[in-house]
């Protein structure tokens, strides 16, 4: 897990504006931060990031497919519709990309809540594979949904 996190910080999350430049996209959900009486640094305009998601689009790899990346909602903000709104924004953006036919994503069996979430939103599993690294293995489910572009 540590090597995964290090890789994320060295790749797409290192420079979001470069990796997710249009027509790719990166969406952030934020809300006003509740000021605490003992917090002298908080101002009325402070915001707290409560979730984000990226749409990776690499047409040189496959112009018909984009991939959901880094979907996360703060644990204390889950089940409030934030994830669904982020995905709606991502899908709406994907529908503006000419020639895009599919948006895909992958989750492991360590993310059962995420799998239920995507299924509720109408995503369908199209591939299941087991990935092994040393003595550890994980089942990866690939989800996809069609995109209706003009």
Automatic annotation (TrEMBL):
The keyword Transferase applies. One of its GO terms (molecular function) is N-acetyltransferase activity. Transmembrane segments: none annotated. Keywords: Transferase. InterPro entries: Acyl_CoA_acyltransferase, GNAT_dom, NAT_camello-type. Residues 1-146 form the N-acetyltransferase domain. The keyword Plastid does not apply. PANTHER family: GNAT FAMILY N-ACETYLTRANSFERASE (PTHR13947), LD18367P (PTHR13947:SF37). This is Acyl-CoA N-acyltransferase. It comes from Mycena rosella (Pink bonnet).
